[in-house]
Amino acid sequence: WPELHRKEKRAKGREAARQAIELAPDMPAALVRLAQYTEDPAVKGQLLRRAYENGPNNVEAILAYAQHLVWDPNPAESEALARKALALDPLVDRTYDILTLIEMRKKRIDKVSEIITLWKEKIPESASARWKESLVYFQRGDYRLMVPTYLGALELESSAAGKDYYKREIGIAYLLARMPDEAQRWIDSMAVRDQGQDWFTRGSRLAI
Question: Is there a contact between 79 and 99 (Cβ–Cβ < 8 Å)?
Answer without folding.
Answer: yes
